[in-house]
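Shipment paperwork, digital attachment
Item: protein structure file
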Amino acid sequence: MLATYNVNGTVGALLVSLFISTCLFGVSSAQAYLYHTSFSRDRLGWKIMVLTVWLCELAHCLCISHSFFLVAITRWGNTAIATEAFPRSFAFSILLSGVIGTIVQCFFAERIRALSRSIVIPAACWALSFVRAVLVIMATYEAFVTTSVSLFEKQWKWLVVTILTLGSAVDFLLAALLCFYIKQAHISNDYPGTSFVLKRVFYWTLETGLITGLAGILIVICLVAFPRNFSWIAIYTVLVRLFSNSLFASLNGRVMLRDGITSVQFTQSSRGGISAKGHLPLPLYRPTLPRAHLLVTMPPTLTTVDIVLFLAIGITAYALFRKIRAFHPPYPPGPARLPLIGSLLKFPSSFEWITYHRWSKEVGSDIIYLNIAGKEIIVLNSLEVIDDLFDKRSTNYSSRPSLPMTVDLMGYDWLLFFMPYGSPWRERRRQFVQHFRPANSSAYQDSQIQYIREILPRLLDDHEDFIAVSKHAVAASALSMAYGLPIKGTDDPLIDLAEHALSTMNTSVLYSSFLVNVIPFLKHVPEFLPGTGFKAKARQWRKLQEDLLARPFETVLQQMNAGTAQPSLATTLLQRMATDNDQSTWDHERRVIKETAGSIFIDVQRNAQEEIDRVVGGRLPEFSDEKDLPYISAIVKEVLRWQPIGPTSIPRIASADDIYRGYYIPKGAIMIANSWSLLKDPEHYPQPELFNPDRFLKDGKIDMSVRDPVRIAFGNGRRRCPGVHIALSFLWLMTATMLKTFNISKAVDEDGNTIEPSMEFISGFICKPAPFKCSFKPRSAQAEELIRSVEMTPQTGESVQL
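Attachment content:
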């Protein structure tokens, strides 16, 4: 935002608004003086009210004059004023504006009570005005404590919009109710003079509600339509003057009626609700009093201020329309949309990548547009589009959108792949790549060999719990790399903590999981209100996130203090970036291993085992064997393709408006790459539902002409997973080691009947298979002896051979 911040558009608007506001303060001061001289016998409460409003006006004028002087004079030429905090005087002026607005609205609500002789409707207006006052106090506090103007606008724009919208709604409601009751009095009163007065009151009251309500709407339009400056602040300062003038003019309007209609005697009517004491709910009146004959002969017309406001609203609306329409080709095709809610009713609650693929086929486009209750989503369904946008235009498509549930409520803002594009993200990624670069394979391969081989005896003794065993290998290797922590047993508390935390994160990240992901404003709703159960979940899940971030690192610090820490990323960097490794790369691996164990068909397994036996003989595979075991590499590629663990990419965001293939991609649109659609493309993978590693082989070698699933499974552009080489090396060695030692087949029940895998998957950011059973049996007595020898041999990366 700061790079596109328009200083002139803000400072100029502030100076103009200061001039207008000062002029209107002079008007309100004249009106306050006129009131106290003309209505010295009015009730004491009204006099105190007028004095209070005028004093608040005076304090408000001094505050904004001071704050604008700081911005326009003291800090003249400072192009980074958006990065600085609000002047204290301006923050205090927000509170004063709330006090004035609340008093004025409560006054007119009291007029409704006098006319309607009912407390119910005025009470509703008072309640709404009270809610607005509470929100203004909240905004005042945040203006005091927020460190910069731009941060306030980013974090609390919703609060400002709510205050303005609620204020306008109350103004319109008050005007409508006053007009209604005055109209009723007009209909039921046959006396010509009184009828004339009521007619004038009706039009003035309509003006009063419109002028303040429309001004509030104008501020909202500027806040949304002109993000490059803070001109909305300028209009907000003028709104306060409109409130006070409407109050003073309403009271002083009785002078005009008395001077202009001398023949009319104001008597209390049982139907009209009008008294000689001035209980007329008269609207905004400007201080220039017309002569009596002009009052009688001139038809009701809008005043100069009204005309100026209407012109300003028209110009702003036109500018907003031009902003939207200028250089705005059509959106990409997509499903039909309804007003306001868009395609919300059609949005799937699970397995959305399948629906994305279907929509793409239905509209005949590999790029589709969705609008879900105002949230714009662009789904990319081909590698060509992904390469064009995420690689060739990576500057515009490398940041992350806000994930309210996962990032804001659960606190995963520190996680590398959720961080927005910028300096902190680049620094984290640089540290990771530097430590785990392929040339520094010793930083991860030794631990991978150790923990992969350690699971072999466990699979031999407890093959039914192969999921927990494989999970142990992945997590143990990850923790060893990241923190240098040894993991003992499959029920290690750190592994259980990581598993639980990852499970909750997997649930929270999808837009279809929680409504707050679609309507971020809901994250501010108090937890005690109905429909906010997600906040209780987020609070509980946040504790898991905090423990996952803190526990391993605290252990490393203790070991470093004791001099027993093992070399790791944590000991090298001493930053929590280490935890990113445990999440971003290893969760992907563990899920793939789970599929590998249950998905390799008998013929595929046999071919792989023949290749392994031919190359490695009577020892366990090593990383140096990879070039001679292409079939194992093909199996890994097919596992990544056949049932993708990450069916969609982590969402990105368009940092600026863009045009691609003649389609308009708006700034802030959520960009999703549908990896599932790419990996199921029959043009590149014939019979995509068939598990067939041979599709990647030609003449006994990897066929480089076949699209590599690795390009899709681990992301594209600047946000490509930096640990892809670590994940692939682990998957390759795990697959080769397991196939070297075990025959993997379908499980059987107690009666010897084969148990068919359900082939069901659990929808989520990580789409994992539902629990299933399979059988791990040693391939031979020699293989079992090889497995048992692992228990007695220290794992240092050296071969175990019989």
